[in-house]
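Internal tracking record. Fields below are filled automatically when a chain is submitted to the structure queue. Please do not edit lines marked as system-generated. If the sequence contains nonstandard residues, flag them in the REMARKS field before resubmitting.
Queue: standard
Priority: normal
Entity type: single polypeptide chain
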Amino acid sequence: MDTGHLLGNLELSGSISDFRPHLIGGFADEAVNQLLYLDAEKEGAIAVLALADLLEVKQNLPLTRTALPSPPQLSYPSLPDGALLSYLHRVTSIPPVQPPKQTSTAIVPVPKPGEVLPDKYNFPFCLKISTAIEPIDWGEELAELEPPC
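SYSTEM-GENERATED OUTPUT FOLLOWS
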């Protein structure tokens, strides 16, 4: 699955369950990778999404720039097959910067002792689709998979 399909599925899932995903295209790659305990040599974050509850007006994100420019790369080394993607991710990553000044504060509900807040991330669409099906009969020794002669 590529990033476009993933983002489309998140948008669809969010609309079904009253959430709005906000794509954040510009983020400090190294900080996010460390937060998620990712080994930068093997994998890395390529997108960050903020989920806003559509039923809570206070969670609407302010209009602001979400994509930050990467420094231009004017020289391209000769790369072996299979190394282009990791090279591209590495040279376009955004280095850590000073955090921006906070313009607003989020209001987080604090439960009273003994009170339990509802689970906002219990997506209802996951419960409506049955995954129980009849097993496929592939025949003895998978004979039904072979094309007829």
